[in-house]
Design a protein that fits this description.
Length: 464
């Protein structure tokens, strides 16, 4: 079999597709270069699409991110945001490394515990959690982020009934996000701190958290600075255990080279997409790395000009960080089998490749966006080099079921039976939005480990 290396010609006058090759971890490159036959056999046996998950890369990312926070002078506990991928293997890796897990539902908490993560290393987030989730969290000593006075009272009642003391963070709206649906206003926060003191036998206030979307290091640092002040204020009011600030996730992943990303944004136009689709927003595929963002947040100057990390040390504050996508960077990819090719080049200038599966396995569609890194073509039979513009459709009856709206410049004609490889899909892409539409089975996940001294990768189905 032959694997392509996408061409890098720049689009001119909208005629030639712009190449946006994805960055590749060395382990991913080895699998694609040296073990293509195994990947094809797995796809044949397990069905299309197939998600390949790589826990060893996840483990590397944990170590790298931990060193980034330490290098910036911050004490930080990492909790893997379970919502970013449903695979059990990542939770098992987190347990083996002594890393925590952030969950937002009862099934996620159960899976974290079953994967070997002790309850005291589990953070429970999400707005207005139900009583079942509260009960499990209290029983296992998990850290619960509370969104309202009502939820705080409910949790206290659960703790009282269990004869335990619940560990709590109070989630607060930041000065810049006063209209957020998550967290407490200033008045509610002050009332909640007082209520924690009143319910001291059942509630242990350990700190504060907040919710932000987006990837602004400055906004996240300033929000964390507010939470440090809340901790200091709460300690003045008797909450001596208020020493944690949870900064959430929001650490970006770099999928493509920054220079190529900037070039793409400069030339991007609707005619580069099937049916002239006009997207208003994309993930910052060529932005900062997670390590760069962590350093930028922790070294950001806050009140008095000192860094956020220095202020935290001064006040005895430890950070909690909840990366999801950042820990899954390069830790998985998705394979599709080509089901059909509708060659419309003579009439429309591009082909429509139909993949066996749907766009529900690439969740950018959920955000009315497109997953932009070029898919790789693995050809069953060698063919002549020839630029082959094509978008990729799913095999459902929905007009909007496009796996890739963008016209990709494949280096040779795509044929039925070929494989398409979507790189770096573990973080939110592969399973956040999957659906058994048309009664199709949910795609399987194959866990691969590529040991340095092994002739071939070891694999198993996730969850087994």
């Amino acid at each position: 079999m032959l694997i392509s290396r996408q061409r890098s010609e720049r689009t001119t006058a909208g005629a030639r597709p712009f190449a946006l090759p994805a960055l590749r971890h060395p382990t991913v490159s080895r699998l694609l270069e040296d073990h293509r036959a195994l990947l094809a056999d797995l796809l044949d046996g397990l069905g299309s699409p197939l998600h390949v998950v790589l826990p060893e890369v996840f483990e590397e990312n944990v170590g790298r991110l931990g060193r980034a926070f330490a290098g910036a002078g911050a004490d930080a506990d990492i909790l893997f945001a379970k919502k970013a991928n449903k695979a059990d293997c990542y939770v098992r890796s987190a347990a083996a490394l002594g890393v925590g897990v952030d969950v937002a539902s009862t099934p996620e908490l159960v899976k974290a515990l079953a994967g070997g993560v002790p309850g005291h290393r589990i953070g429970v987030s999400g707005p207005e959690k139900d009583d079942t989730l509260h009960t499990l969290a209290v029983q296992h000593g998990s850290l619960v982020a509370i969104d309202s006075l009502g939820e705080l009272r409910r949790l206290a009642g659960t703790a009282r009934g269990a004869g335990r003391r619940a560990r709590v963070l109070l989630r607060c709206r930041t000065a810049g996000r006063s209209g957020s649906r998550f967290g407490m206003s200033r008045g509610e926060r002050e009332a909640a701190v007082a209520l924690c003191a009143e319910l001291d036998r059942h509630i242990e206030l350990q700190g504060f958290s907040f919710h932000l979307d987006g990837y602004s290091a400055a906004e996240r640092a300033l929000a964390a600075d507010e939470m440090i002040d809340h901790c200091v204020d709460a300690r003045r009011r008797g909450a001596s255990t208020a020493r944690l600030v949870d900064i959430g996730g929001g650490l970006p992943v770099r999928y493509v080279e920054p220079r190529r990303w900037e070039e793409f944004l400069a030339q991007n136009r609707p005619e580069h997409y099937h049916a002239g689709k006009d997207f208003k927003d994309f993930y910052p595929y060529g932005g900062q790395t997670a390590e760069q963002a962590a350093h930028a947040i922790m070294t950001y100057p806050v009140g008095g000009g000192e860094s956020l990390a220095a202020k935290a040390r001064q006040h005895g504050i430890r950070f909690v960080v909840e990366p999801g996508r950042a820990l899954l960077d390069q830790a998985g990819f998705t394979l599709y089998r080509v089901q059909q090719v509708d060659d419309r080049r003579e009439t429309d200038g591009y082909a429509i490749v139909t993949a066996e599966g749907s766009s529900f396995s690439l969740s950018e569609q959920w955000f009315n966006s497109d997953y932009l890194p070029d898919p790789l073509l693995i050809s069953a039979r060698p063919g002549a080099d020839e630029l082959f513009p094509a978008c990729v459709a799913g095999s459902t009856c929905l007009e909007s079921d496009m796996v890739t709206w963008r016209k990709v410049g494949f280096p040779r004609p795509v044929r039925r039976g070929d494989l398409l490889v979507y790189l770096n899909t573990a973080g939110y892409q592969m399973d956040s939005n999957e659906s058994p539409f048309h009664d199709a089975a949910l795609p399987l996940k194959a866990v691969l480990r590529l040991d340095a001294d092994a002739a071939a990768p070891r694999w198993r189905l996730d969850g087994i």
